[in-house]
Specification:
single chain, 14 helices, alpha/beta
Length: 327
């Protein structure tokens, strides 16, 4: 098997004669053996309990698991919301504040993924079967200097996992875009279509490093397959940071309209004007906390993502092309 696999990698298969036929047969056996090994390893993952399976990241993960032939168990609060995804599978109903129901929903799982908010990590850790590895979804919001309930909850969830003896990881994605129904770049594009000028604090010089949903899903799949000796935290983000103003322009180009001019403006007037946007029909709501975070750099080292998970994220232009397909 090793020889045949080596010949495949080296391109040493010579078809059209008996020797080539022998190589091809050996190569087929090698591939079958490698696939058998992979399937045996994957069998130890199954079933994968997916908490929050009806959400954007959860449903994307379930589609990927189904495509790879891995069995999964959706754990959701609403059977109707799960049915709306169009995915097969009988859901287990459990509210994360209902410890007995959550414990029953997770019983017998080979791996557990939670796409729910990381603040629920203590409840999940308490309900999960002993020793079953856990993959949690956090957020790079945990690094923001602008404290809010979301970021505080992520920090608390990370602390709970790292203080436990549970093998697993909490993945901290940067801004996620490209998911079905996501409201990050889609909402931004809807706003920019209506604006002749884009007022940005500091002229949009702060850095952002968004990640496409497909890379988030690949990272979760890799985390499921990795053997975690101790609990860890790993940031997952796009390949490189860009200025927010350049990100804005890239979104406009991908959505098919010219970007508005960027106007540097102090943060205070924007904060004062934000509530007024709610009075204008057709404009999405912009929260004050979102404006504040536009003033801080969100740039991250993706080396751990690449080395621990083996995921090389796609570039922004490619990701936006997938998000705004040609019409």
């Amino acid at each position: 098997m090793t020889s045949a696999a080596g010949d495949i990698r080296a391109g040493n298969i010579r078809a059209g004669n008996g020797e080539g036929t022998g190589y091809l047969a050996a190569a087929g056996r090698a591939r079958a053996a490698l696939e058998s090994i992979r399937r045996t390893a994957d069998a130890r993952l199954e079933p994968v309990a997916v908490i929050g399976a009806s959400g954007r990241s959860g449903s994307s993960l379930c589609r990927a698991l189904a495509a790879e032939g891995l069995s999964f168990r959706p754990v959701v609060r609403s059977a109707a919301r799960w049915a709306a995804t169009g995915l097969a599978g009988e859901p287990r109903l459990a509210d994360l504040t209902d410890a007995p129901a959550l414990r029953a929903a997770l019983a017998g799982a080979g791996r557990i993924v939670s796409c729910a908010h990381a603040r629920h990590a203590p409840a999940i850790l308490a309900a999960a079967p002993p020793g079953v590895p856990l993959v949690l979804m956090g957020s790079t919001r945990r690094f923001s200097r602008w404290a809010d309930d979301h970021g505080d909850g992520v920090r608390q969830g990370e602390a709970a996992l790292l203080a436990s003896t549970r093998p697993g990881v909490i993945l901290h994605p940067s801004m996620i875009y490209g998911a079905q129904g996501e409201d990050n770049v889609q909402r931004l594009a809807a706003l920019l279509r209506r604006l002749p000028l884009a007022p940005l604090p500091g002229g949009g010089r702060a850095l952002v490093q968004p990640i496409h949903q497909s890379d988030v899903t690949r990272a979760v799949l890799a985390a499921l397959r990795r053997k975690w000796e101790t609990p860890q935290a790993v940031v997952i983000a796009g390949p490189e940071p860009v200025r927010y103003a350049d990100f804005l322009r890239a979104v406009c180009r991908a959505a098919g309209f010219p970007p508005p001019g960027v106007v540097p403006i102090p943060l205070a007037p924007l904060l004062a004007a934000a509530p007024l946007l709610r009075l204008l029909p057709g404009l999405p709501r912009i929260r004050a906390a979102e404006l504040r975070r536009l003033t801080e750099d969100k740039a991250f080292d993706t080396a751990p993502m690449r080395t621990l998970l083996g995921v090389a994220p796609i570039g922004l232009e490619e990701g936006l092309a997938l998000t705004f397909p040609p019409r």
